[in-house]
């Protein structure tokens, strides 16, 4: 079932520009100079139920703008958007009850109150029945394992603990579609891992559809089964993560260990990543692996060990993004 359908959507921001200095500011009061920023350009996208889509791109690529269009916080300049059959910008209560947006850089919890107070308020906002609220809260509190934090003032929670509570607050109404904008921003590696596990478990157990943006590649490789890459507002890649790996995992990392190691000359040298007297690591294209192994064994008769590894997907994705941004 199609949950999200975006057809030829663009979003322009118009910003007022003033010249520098007091003179410029005064001039700006009478004559306004506007500049148009094309944040999203002619994007089409279809997301099916239960899909987890990783939205990637450099700073300013248009990811947050696209998420805001999908949640109805912004109105598209042109094109059409349908989420669960609704036009998001109408912000109908039935629509809002079925979606959520979590922004890693924005707090929704009351700073001076314990999380349970914010949860109770969310119950009222979403008009969740007592029975449903009791069930949902119990489920989420167990899933995120935060029972002992429910009554601690939010200002006294660590960033990771607060993020868990933020997520619970955003999931209390059990939304069908979840938009996550940098959900692990600023968290240490252990908390990032924990948050990913919880999101994964919630999504699997509740058949949710997710779009997630993150600059932490591991959020994407751990959670997403499809990636969409934006560059300066345009969609430049859209495929499953496994297809991406097939298309881009074109090298292997080969490490050779030997006493008094002799490295290979000529073109092989360009593939050498690092070496010392006992060890050399190469990045070899898949089609040259067997030739490389033959040649390195021919010049080193006493090889002690040979390790052939796939280049990790995180590195491939980072390399691709680095290239796409340039
Ligand atoms: N409210 C706004 N008014 C004017 N321009 C904006 C506004 N919000 C975003 N932009 C501009 O639109 C473009 C896309 O921004 P957006 O925040 O969508 O990118 P992003 O991919 O989410 O970036 P980041 O990874 O840094 O969060 C940028 O050039 C940005 O400066």
Automatic annotation (TrEMBL):
> Which InterPro entries does the record associate with it?
AAA+_ATPase, ABC_transporter-like_ATP-bd, ABC_transporter_ATP-binding, P-loop_NTPase
Keyword annotations for this protein, in alphabetical order, are:
ATP-binding, Nucleotide-binding, Transport
Domain ABC transporter, first and last residues per copy: 24-257
Q: Which PANTHER family match?
A: ABC TRANSPORTER ATP-BINDING PROTEIN, ABC TRANSPORTER RELATED
Please list the GO terms describing molecular function.
ATP binding; ATP hydrolysis activity
Q: Species lineage, top-down?
A: Bacteria, Bacillati, Bacillota, Clostridia, Halanaerobiales
In the UniProt record, does the keyword Nucleotide-binding occur?
Answer: yes
* Protein name (record): ABC transporter domain-containing protein
**Pfam families per UniProt:** ABC_tran
């Amino acid at each position: 079932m199609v949950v999200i359908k975006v057809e030829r959507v663009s979003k322009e921001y118009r910003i007022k520009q003033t010249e520098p200095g007091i003179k410029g500011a005064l001039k700006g009061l009478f004559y306004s100079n506007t500049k148009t920023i094309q944040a999203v350009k002619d994007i089409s996208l279809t997301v099916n139920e239960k899909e987890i889509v990783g939205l990637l791109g450099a700073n300013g690529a248009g990811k947050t703008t696209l998420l805001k269009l999908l949640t109805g916080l912004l109105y598209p300049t042109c094109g059409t958007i349908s989420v669960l059959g609704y036009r998001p910008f109408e912000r109908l209560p039935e629509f809002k009850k079925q979606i959520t947006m979590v922004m890693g850089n924005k707090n929704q919890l009351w700073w001076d109150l314990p999380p349970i107070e914010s949860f109770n308020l969310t119950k009222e906002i979403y008009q969740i029945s007592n029975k449903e609220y009791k069930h949902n809260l119990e489920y989420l509190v167990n899933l995120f394992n935060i029972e002992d934090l429910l009554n601690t003032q939010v200002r006294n929670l660590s960033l990771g603990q607060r993020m868990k509570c933020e997520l619970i607050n955003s999931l209390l109404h059990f939304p069908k579609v979840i938009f996550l904008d940098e959900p692990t921003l600023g968290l240490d590696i252990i908390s990032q891992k924990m948050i990913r596990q919880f999101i994964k478990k919630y999504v699997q157990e509740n058949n949710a559809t997710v779009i997630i943006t993150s600059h932490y590649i591991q959020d994407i490789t751990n959670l997403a089964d499809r990636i969409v890459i934006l560059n300066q507002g345009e969609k430049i890649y859209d495929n499953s993560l496994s297809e991406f790996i097939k298309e881009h995992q074109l090298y292997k990392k080969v490490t050779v260990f030997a006493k008094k190691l002799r490295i290979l000359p000529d073109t092989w040298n360009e593939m050498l990543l690092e070496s010392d007297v006992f060890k050399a690591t190469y990045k070899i294209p898949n089609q040259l692996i067997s030739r490389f192994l033959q040649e390195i064994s021919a010049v080193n008769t006493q090889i002690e060990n040979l390790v052939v590894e796939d280049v990790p997907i995180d590195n491939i994705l980072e390399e691709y993004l680095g290239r796409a941004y340039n």
